[in-house]
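Consider the tokenized backbone below.
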């Protein structure tokens, strides 16, 4: 069964982790970087391509928080060979100079089909050969996106993390694929140019400097000669161009640029000069993008003019524009995505600072949108999102920006508008009313509302912070009951700034080794034996007091950082339980308990991740118990139940944490694939003096016993509480009375073969 589950972690795995939730995170920054890189690659000159690629690898590698980045080329269709590389540690030799044929061939079908090879944890691969090759290079996580030219695989853009498993989100993969597509196009263009340059020189001056289209401009600026390809490229008969102003062939927006560049070439005889791509006018009135090279042959008697060689690059320009649009826009609605949104917002704030005006940001979150998907289907949900985009665009000005931030969340940026309280309220109210109107899908009407956060800023705020403030208001509105508008004030701004700083630091916490685990012993009340330990993560920032999980795990969940943090916690805890067992081989079997969140269960590959980490640590499945809360069970219950069943099939234990504080249906609870219930500390705290708490604990214990589950009391802090929960039937307990959370070495002495510890 374990091998079946590990099979999901193969390099052919179809799913990357879902993109993070709507908070400014590194994906937004990555989107803006990708936009700039795409623009640079699209505009590069041939001799600058290598420098641009090296710079791009360094930029992407740093932003993606990996140690190595590569561009690989195919070699006879049997091998990936490194052509460019970047190493964060300045090591001149890449870890993977080439991937052997027997490994690379496994990747060919996916890469050739335009799909990524995503390996979140190399050690978890069922394919031992691939795991060995990459692992020997010190690689823990690997991602490759294909480079393709006209549908033919030509190489890959690859990234390697050496420190720890790395969850790659769909948003990250899509952005990096946009870079790969543009790079492939730039390489293709460079190769085509190299092929052309190897052609034989023509004897005649017109053809000696020609490519597809050749025009000679006389000293007076008129066309003195035109090659026969003029008819094919621009639709003009060569003879009909003679005597006409050369500037008439250039589209109006580019005429000044063309004229100014010709003037600069008058004093540079015989030197071919590349001009920026310009638009030229076809005989039918359409515009074609042309790549121009001009050679001053005014001193050549046979020519006595400027020779203009022009190559039609219209399709290339259109493809580059499409790639740029794809990298910066939401594919469903066509609206700007979060990367372009942040870029536009940054420029809007710069203009507002100069004009001493404010910018208004509205962050709208559709309330209960998942009900549309559940009741009408995802196609209907997509239709509604497209209509929402259209409605928002209809109620704002042309100068304003409407963006889709992700999922069912949209952002409006109003620039150079009246931003008094009344005007802001009116704008937010207009958006709210527009979204309350019924949506008609498949002949059925559905009604939605939105929770909206509003923030204003100018000179003293960044785009990321202003967007985060609006999002904080959105969360306030949602928590106050939906269909509300919340304006962010000064106190909320300070809180948002602290949150932004926390998110930024949390991005690097795992890589910098700032996280650590403490363990709280779980005691068997009948014998006093330590039978398990709950792993509790702590964040020790430099020069700051440590933070407990309640202070940063919610932020990690909301920003998508729970994936790398959660993977680190699981990996560390599993290695620790194995280390304890090796240090005390005669001790009773021990389990480590680890909390998991809804985001982890919903990642799509959590079962495979757990299977891989168990194998990596050399731990048995029964040594791990995963804790989930009742609230997690209520989110996507069918999906959650399936994931829990798959985890149980691995042999991993499942416990319900904080039991007794939620509102789970007992009928559904009966069918859950779980092993234990942990009775919430708030009930345990009152069990000795509050008959109602005691009654609830007693009922929970009886329910657990009847369902063959193990009852477990949390938060035992007094002897009276310990005795009472024991009387009521709890077999296991943990709490400050028994053991406080402590570093792993302090738990080791408690694991003796015949422990005598009793509080």
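A designed sequence for it:
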């Amino acid at each position: 069964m374990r091998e079946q589950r590990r099979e999901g972690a193969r390099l052919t795995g179809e799913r990357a982790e879902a993109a993070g939730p709507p908070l400014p995170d590194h994906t937004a920054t990555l989107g803006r970087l990708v936009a700039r890189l795409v623009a640079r690659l699209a505009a590069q000159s041939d001799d600058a391509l290598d420098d641009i690629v090296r710079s791009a690898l360094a930029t992407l590698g740093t932003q993606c928080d990996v140690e190595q980045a590569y561009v690989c080329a195919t070699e006879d269709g049997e091998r990936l060979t490194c052509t460019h590389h970047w190493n964060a540690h300045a090591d001149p030799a890449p870890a993977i100079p080439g991937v052997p044929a027997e490994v690379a061939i496994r990747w060919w079908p996916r890469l050739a089909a335009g799909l990524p090879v995503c390996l979140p944890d190399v050690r978890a691969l069922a394919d031992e050969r691939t795991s060995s090759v990459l692992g020997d290079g010190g690689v823990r996580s690997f991602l490759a996106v294909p480079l393709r030219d006209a549908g033919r695989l030509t190489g890959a853009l690859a990234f390697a993390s050496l420190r720890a498993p790395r969850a790659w989100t769909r948003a990250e993969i899509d952005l990096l694929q946009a870079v790969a597509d543009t790079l492939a196009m730039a390489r293709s263009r460079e190769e085509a140019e190299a092929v052309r340059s190897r052609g034989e020189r023509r004897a005649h001056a017109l053809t000696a400097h020609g490519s597809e289209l050749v025009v000679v401009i006389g000293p007076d600026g008129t066309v003195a000669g035109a090659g026969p390809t003029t008819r094919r490229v621009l639709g003009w008969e060569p003879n009909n161009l003679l005597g006409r102003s050369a500037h008439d062939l250039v589209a109006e927006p580019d005429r000044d640029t063309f004229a100014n560049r010709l003037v600069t070439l008058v004093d540079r005889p015989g030197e071919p000069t590349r001009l920026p791509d310009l638009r030229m006018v076809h005989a039918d009135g359409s515009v074609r993008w042309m790549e121009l090279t001009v050679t001053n042959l005014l001193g050549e008697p046979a020519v006595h003019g400027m020779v203009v060689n022009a190559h039609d690059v219209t399709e290339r320009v259109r493809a580059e524009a499409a790639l740029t649009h794809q990298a910066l826009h939401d594919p469903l609605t066509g609206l700007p995505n979060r990367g372009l949104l942040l870029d536009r917002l940054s420029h809007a704030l710069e203009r507002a600072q100069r004009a001493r005006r404010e910018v208004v940001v509205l962050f709208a979150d559709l309330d209960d949108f998942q009900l549309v998907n559940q009741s009408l289907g995802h196609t209907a949900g997509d239709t509604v999102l497209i209509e929402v985009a259209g409605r928002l665009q209809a109620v704002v000005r042309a100068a304003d920006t409407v963006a889709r931030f992700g999922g069912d969340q949209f952002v409006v940026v109003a620039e150079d508008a009246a931003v008094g309280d009344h005007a802001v309220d009116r704008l937010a109210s207009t958006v709210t009313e527009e979204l309350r109107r019924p949506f008609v899908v498949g002949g059925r009407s559905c009604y939605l509302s939105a929770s909206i956060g509003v923030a204003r800023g100018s000179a003293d705020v960044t785009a990321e912070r202003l967007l985060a403030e609006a999002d904080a208001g959105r969360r306030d509105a949602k928590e106050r009951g939906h269909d509300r508008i919340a304006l962010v004030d000064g106190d909320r701004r300070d809180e948002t700034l602290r949150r932004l700083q926390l998110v930024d630091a949390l991005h690097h916490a795992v890589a910098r080794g700032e996280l650590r685990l403490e363990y709280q012993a779980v005691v068997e009340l009948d014998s006093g034996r330590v039978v398990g330990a709950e792993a509790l993560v702590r964040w020790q920032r430099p020069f700051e007091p440590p933070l407990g999980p309640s202070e940063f795990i919610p932020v990690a969940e909301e920003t998508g950082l729970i994936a790398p943090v959660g993977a680190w916690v699981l990996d560390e805890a599993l290695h620790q339980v194995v280390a304890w067992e090796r240090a005390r081989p005669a001790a009773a079997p021990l389990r480590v308990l680890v909390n998991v969140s809804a985001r982890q269960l919903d990642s799509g590959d959590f079962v495979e991740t757990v299977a891989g980490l168990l194998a990596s640590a050399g731990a048995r499945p029964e040594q791990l118990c995963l804790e989930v809360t009742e609230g997690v069970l209520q989110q996507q219950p069918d999906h959650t139940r399936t994931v829990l069943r798959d985890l149980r099939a691995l042999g991993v234990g499942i416990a319900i944490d904080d039991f007794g504080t939620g509102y789970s249906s007992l009928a559904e609870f009966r069918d859950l694939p779980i092993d234990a219930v942990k009775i919430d500390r708030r009930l345990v705290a009152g069990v000795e003096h509050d008959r109602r708490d005691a009654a609830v604990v007693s009922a929970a214990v009886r329910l657990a016993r009847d369902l063959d589950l193990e009852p477990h009391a949390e938060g035992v802090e007094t002897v009276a509480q310990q005795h009472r929960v024991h009387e009521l039937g709890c077999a296991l307990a943990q709490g400050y009375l028994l053991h406080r959370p402590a570093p792993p070495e302090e738990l080791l002495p408690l694991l003796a073969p015949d422990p005598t510890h009793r509080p």
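The longest strand covers residues 287-297.
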